[in-house]
């Protein structure tokens, strides 16, 4: 998968801007505060429906603008076809098009354009709450399991209906009907998630061995969101019904799912240093990208924000050589070319300054 054109307007410091990334390595260079990260935000917004720095309404829309608009064209490696998508978001409402067709569901965009992003907040994938880890699972499955997206929507609809009934304290036949729907959709959804993590395991083992050899091996552990080893989801919902009626929300089920990584030589995530947490998160994201490439036959676009401040010189070189070897399209931001840029890697360079993106010549390797 290769982005051939990215245009956006009304985004943070940009009135409007565009760039045409090269197939391989692309560097977005500029001073602090110049807007480099915002370029990656535009791409991330199209692929995830949100910025990696928060919700659209939390400062993504440029002051004085009514909305942020993003347009992306990309080419799929396997099919050879070109695709295009547009999204306009006010922070309250949105409208989007995919290959010229209006969309009713934002998830259709998320399932079309595949972008894996590593940024300063990515350590939350390991150290933070369960929500980003659930998003990680869902996003990965959107791209490798066609049946997952409609199943996930079915579960979310049933969950909303049950929660609405719980808030009005209506324990009638409607509640039982929506619990059956939650059970049917949620049980299958959980199997997809569990199998997905099992498939990621060998890729994670390889990436953690490369990035964190001192971890002694890493294992993904799935937490389904209820005591599945003791009872099926239908029974868990029934047992929790009185408690849920009192609380006004559904306390068990796949919407409460989580996962964790256990390193053989590191006793729990609390023992991870910030640097180890970053490397663990990067290993997980690269494992996801490698798995997708294996299943779909093409790599997602890889976006690395402020790589030099997140990784030391040796790990920068390792990651760049790894991605170069795979032939992935990579976009990296920084104040200067990465210290780990080998001489055989000649990236396309874009200089970003307030409200402008200027294409320059290839970057020289750092001494």
TrEMBL record:
ATP binds at residues 30-37. The keyword tRNA processing does not apply. One of its GO terms (biological process) is DNA synthesis involved in DNA repair. Keywords: ATP-binding, Cytoplasm, DNA damage, DNA repair, DNA replication, DNA-binding, Nucleotide-binding, SOS response. GO terms for molecular function: ATP binding; single-stranded DNA binding. GO terms for cellular component: cytoplasm. The keyword Zinc-finger does not apply. It is found in: Cytoplasm. It comes from the Bacteria. Residues 22-356 form the AAA+ ATPase domain. HAMAP family: RecF. NCBIfam families: recf. Belongs to the RecF family. The RecF protein is involved in DNA metabolism; it is required for DNA replication and normal SOS inducibility. RecF binds preferentially to single-stranded, linear DNA. It also seems to bind ATP. This is DNA replication and repair protein RecF.
